[in-house]
């Protein structure tokens, strides 16, 4: 178990892998009590290879995982009572996880596959920033390009019915599952 120091500064993390982390396996841990910070940081210095985060429980973390390097897999984890996982790298797979009062924030990268996850009780399980979408506006709406993302076969339960938020613009723009399927051609075979 890896408890954090509650109220720590943003630059502190429960686990921090720096300078091209490669061949890292983090499996079957409980990472918790880091409310103002990052549970696990995969960052600093380029392209890691073959990193696996599997079978862990993350809770009470400001950001459970901040993955800005590339080539990592996040699978079979339980994430609850936490902020959003931040994903900025390329060649990333996020699958077969359970997110309760949490979700995933996409800020950049390419070749990102998100499937087979369960999202429950989250205000906005999928958050998309301009680093992924390409930005631009047309008639007051963003010019969307979600081609770097593949989101499919996920299951959503939210009280609002909204699963996506495009957070670059204020106020944010929210989408339901049918809108995500029709507008973005994403979330095929997903359930709400």
Structure report:
The protein has 192 residues and is mainly beta. Helix content is 6%, strand content 47%. It has helices at residues 130-133, 177-184; strands at residues 2-3, 13-17, 25-27, 30-42, 51-54, 57-67, 72-75, 78-80, 84-87, 92-95, 98-100, 103-106, 112-115, 118-120, 126-128, 137-138, 141-142, 149-152, 155-157, 162-166, 173-176. The strands form 3 sheets. Strands 1, 2, 4, 6, 8, 9, 11, 12, 14, 15, 19, 20 and 21 form a 13-stranded mixed β-sheet that branches. Strand 20 and strand 21 form a beta hairpin. The model is unreliable at 1-11 and 131-144 (pLDDT under 50).
What labels would you give this structure?
mainly beta, 13-stranded mixed sheet, 6-stranded parallel sheet, disordered N terminus
Q: What is the typical, i.e. mean, pLDDT? A: 76
Oligomer: single chain
Count, helices:
2
Largest sheet: 13 strands, mixed
As residue ranges, the low-confidence spans are 1-11, 131-144
**Large-scale geometry:** globular
Radius of gyration: 16 Å
Q: What is the β-strand count?
A: 21
Task: Summarize the helices and strands and which ones pair or pack.
Elements: E1 2-3, E2 13-17, E3 25-27, E4 30-42, E5 51-54, E6 57-67, E7 72-75, E8 78-80, E9 84-87, E10 92-95, E11 98-100, E12 103-106, E13 112-115, E14 118-120, E15 126-128, H1 130-133, E16 137-138, E17 141-142, E18 149-152, E19 155-157, E20 162-166, E21 173-176, H2 177-184
Parallel strand pairs: 1-4, 2-4, 3-5, 4-6, 5-7, 6-8, 6-9, 7-10, 8-11, 9-12, 10-13, 11-14, 12-15, 13-18, 14-19, 15-20
Antiparallel strand pairs: 16-17, 20-21
């Amino acid at each position: 178990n890896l408890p954090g120091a509650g109220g720590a500064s943003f630059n502190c993390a429960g686990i921090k892998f720096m300078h091209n982390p490669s061949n890292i396996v983090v499996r079957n841990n409980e990472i918790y009590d880091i409310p103002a910070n990052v549970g696990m940081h995969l960052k600093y210095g380029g392209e890691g290879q073959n990193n696996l985060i599997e079978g862990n429980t993350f809770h009470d973390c400001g950001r459970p995982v901040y993955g800005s390097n590339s080539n990592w897999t996040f699978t079979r984890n339980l994430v609850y009572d936490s902020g959003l996982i931040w994903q900025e790298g390329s060649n990333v797979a996020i699958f077969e996880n359970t997110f309760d009062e949490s979700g995933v924030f996409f800020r950049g990268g390419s070749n990102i596959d998100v499937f087979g996850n369960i999202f429950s009780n989250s205000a906005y399980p999928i958050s998309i920033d301009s680093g992924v979408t390409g930005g631009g506006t047309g008639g007051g709406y963003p010019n969307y390009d979600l081609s770097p993302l593949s989101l499919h076969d996920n299951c959503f339960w939210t009280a609002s019915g909204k699963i996506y938020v495009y957070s670059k613009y204020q106020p944010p723009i929210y989408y339901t599952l049918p809108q995500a399927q029709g507008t973005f051609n994403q979330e095929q075979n997903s359930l709400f």
